[in-house]
Amino acid sequence: METIIKQKIRQVKKGDQSAFEDIVNFYQNKVIQICYRMLGNLHEAEDIAQEAFVRAYTNIHSFDEKRKFSTWLYRIATNLSIDRIRKKKPDYYLDAEVKGTEGLTMYSQLSMDEPLPEEKVESMELNDYIQKQILSLPEKYRSVISLRYVDDLSLQEISEALEMPMGTVKTRIHRGREALRKKLRDL
Amino acid sequence: MSCSKRYIELMHKYLDHEILKDEEDELKQHLMQCKSCQSHFHELKRTEALLESPSHVQAPDDFVQQVMNKLPREKKSVSYRK
Question: Which CATH class is domain A106-184?
Answer without folding.
Answer: mainly alpha
